[in-house]
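Postdoc handover notes: sequence design on the structure in folder B. Input tokens:
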């Protein structure tokens, strides 16, 4: 999955199989949850997006990773 900024530039790529999730319930919810970890943090902005099945999914809130003390890296959950 490529995550792009508002200009369409790819800022990060992650495989879909890292515990990621696609959920759609009629008249209720429609979202992607991308889980990944990084050694160094990346700042994602509101409006960054990815395309999945022809649908654009945008970040609508700020993202703050959790520091993982066992790996020394940062755990992300983008929804």
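Designed sequence:
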């Amino acid at each position: 999955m490529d995550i792009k900024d508002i200009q369409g530039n790819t800022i990060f790529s992650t495989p879909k199989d890292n515990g990621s999730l696609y959920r759609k319930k009629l008249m209720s919810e429609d979202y992607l949850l991308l889980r990944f970890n990084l050694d160094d943090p990346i700042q994602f902005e509101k409006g960054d997006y990815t395309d999945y099945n022809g649908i654009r999914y945008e970040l609508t809130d700020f993202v703050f990773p959790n520091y993982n003390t066992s790996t020394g890296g940062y755990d992300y959950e983008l929804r």
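Context for whoever picks this up: The CA atoms of residues 39 and 70 lie 12 Å apart. Don't rerun without checking with the PI first.
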